Amino acid sequence: MNYTFEQLPEAISTLHEKVDSIKDLLVENQLASQSPHSDLLTITQAAEFLKLSVPTLYTKVSRGEIPVNKRGKRLYFSTGELSAWIKAGKKKTVEETQSDLKHKCTEENPPPE
Known about the structure:
The structure is a single chain. The protein has five helices and three strands. The chain is mostly helical.
């Protein structure tokens, strides 16, 4: 977009406001991520995070299937631990399985020198 000389002060002012707004959002986001409680979830929040019902989550906790912190009668879940738990259940693709098998075979039977 082309601005005339007379429009420049208003355009710069608008641009300055937008940059300040973006800066404020970035600072707010950084502060939220540094908060020590920002990644702790209650049972209800954890159920929403995992897309499970609260009773199902209680069952997984009682069976020791899911990482949890207990303080008194309250349960707390770390988003980082829950994400790692989800990723640990990843099924390998056929290509990954074949690659692992090839790698294992070459370690056990190295090619002749």
